Amino acid sequence: MSLRSPLSQARGLGSAKDGVGHWWMQRMTAIALIPLSLWFVFSLVRFPLLDHATMVAWIHAPLVAVALVLFFLAMFYHAALGVQVVIEDYVGNEGVKLVSIVVTKLALFAFGAAAIFAVLKIAFGA
Amino acid sequence: MSVKPASSNRPLSPFMIGPYYKPQLTSMLSITHRLTGLALAFGTIFIAAWVTAAATSPEAYAQFAWAANSIIGKLLLIAYTWALVYHLCNGIRHLFWDTGRGFALKSAYASGYAVVGASVVLTAVIWVAAYL
């Protein structure tokens, strides 16, 4: 039970009904992606990761696995939020807009789940 | 005197650029931020494919590595690197704007030119470093 009055609960939510939640998470993931993407590009340059043995050994390091999982969480979340805004701005037809948002969000979360599972499988594997 | 377009065929964003709206550095960088964002979002499919191939088998990974090492693969990777660096630099510009600073015309242009320069230089540095 909330002690806040019904009026205060309804205020500030705007037409999207979730207030600044979308905007805030886009910024949170953006800030997380600054060091994570720099580290990711640095690693790709630093190690010959197109060699399978090197790639597996790299992901076996616990800090690398954790950083990759964080990177993928932030990246796929940020991508889903960003693509949603572009669709909302440029797709006029309500039906097409809704279907586009649902499809891109589900696809990005599926790709994110696949990427994170792959990292964990290698990290926990022999 | 300008003629008001009929409501049925008004120019809609982003298709007003050109005949109705003069492009400037700031608006072009803004649309480029969106375009690189879309390209990067599409590219996440390949990042998922990359780690999934590594988790599947050495053979599957060798196939992915062959595709990434091909001429087309390399050109796509260079384009992806530039899109990432541009979106990163311009994203930091946006985060700075979120603090309410840097909106003066002179500042917006200065940070815009800085983003364009930094994105090209950093892309070159990354690819030179990759071959050292």
List the helices and strands and how they pair.
The complex is a heterodimer of chains A (126) and B (132).
Chain A lengths: L5 H5 L10 H26 L5 H9 L1 H29 L3 H31 L2
Helix pairs in contact in A: 2-4, 4-5
Chain B lengths: L24 H32 L1 H12 L1 H28 L6 H26 L2
Order of helices and strands of chain A: HHHHH
Q: What is CATH's topology name of chain A?
A: 3 helical TM bundles of succinate and fumarate reductases
Shape of chain B: extended
CATH architecture label name of chain A: Up-down Bundle
CATH secondary-structure class of chain A: Mainly Alpha
- What is the structural class of chain A? mainly alpha
Identify the CATH homologous superfamily of chain B: Fumarate reductase/succinate dehydrogenase, transmembrane subunit
CATH architectural grouping of chain B: Up-down Bundle
Residue stretches of chain B low in confidence (pLDDT < 50, at least 5 long) are none
Distance, first to last CA of chain A? 49 Å
Number of helices, where a helix is a run of at least 4 consecutive DSSP H or I residues of chain A: 5
**Biggest sheet architecture of chain A:** none
Summarize the biggest pleated sheet of chain B: none
Number of strands of chain B: 0
Q: Kindly provide the name of the CATH class of chain B.
A: Mainly Alpha
Characterization of this structure:
By secondary structure, chain A is mainly alpha-helical. Chain A has one domain (21-124): Fumarate reductase/succinate dehydrogenase, transmembrane subunit (3 helical TM bundles of succinate and fumarate reductases, Up-down Bundle). Helix content of chain A is 79%, strand content 0%. Chain A contains five helices and no strands. In chain A, helix 2 crosses helix 4 (62-90) and helix 4 packs antiparallel against helix 5. The longest helix of chain A has 31 residues, at 94-124. Chain A is elongated. The model of chain A has no long low-confidence stretch (mean pLDDT 93). By secondary structure, chain B is mainly alpha-helical. Chain B has one domain (25-130): Fumarate reductase/succinate dehydrogenase, transmembrane subunit (3 helical TM bundles of succinate and fumarate reductases). Helices cover 74% and strands 0% of the residues of chain B. Chain B has helices spanning 25-56, 58-69, 71-98, 105-130. Chain B is extended. The relative contact order of chain B is 0.10. Chain A binds chain B through residues 27, 30-31, 33-34, 37-38, 41, 44-45, 50-53, 55-56, 59, 68, 72, 75-76, 79, 82-83, 86, 89-90, 92, 104, 108, 111-112, 114-115, 117-119, 121-122, 125, and chain B through 12-14, 34, 37-38, 40-41, 44-45, 47-48, 51-52, 54-55, 58, 61-62, 65, 68-69, 81, 84, 88, 91-92, 94-95, 98, 126, 129-130.
